[in-house]
Input
Amino acid sequence: MNLNTAMRISSSGLAAERYRMDTISQNIANANTIKTKDQDAYHRQDVVLAGSPDGVRIVGVVSDPNSYLEKIEPNNPNADENGVVRYSDVDPLVEMVNMMSASRAYEANIQAFNSAKSMIRSALQIGKV
Output
């Protein structure tokens, strides 16, 4: 492996973690949606990543199969005939932990990229002499 490969792998990690943070942000933004007569409540999205010798690749985004959170609110206009309202299955606390994890992974990839860049600069400086 050469330093250009290390930088490319770190770049793929940066792109994957940025995509993961975008998806987590979307989950948080939709955390309080409810099921209406015309539309289902938002289902939590999760990014599937896969490793390869060339770095990280985004396999896809999957919906969390958990059911909706159900609350009894008979006065809510979106309640069903039993007075049950179905809310999104997004837990903001879980999403914030996931966001911190993605942020730390992003920072680690930046450090790895900058280390490789620094090594390339040092090698060029040695070549000048």
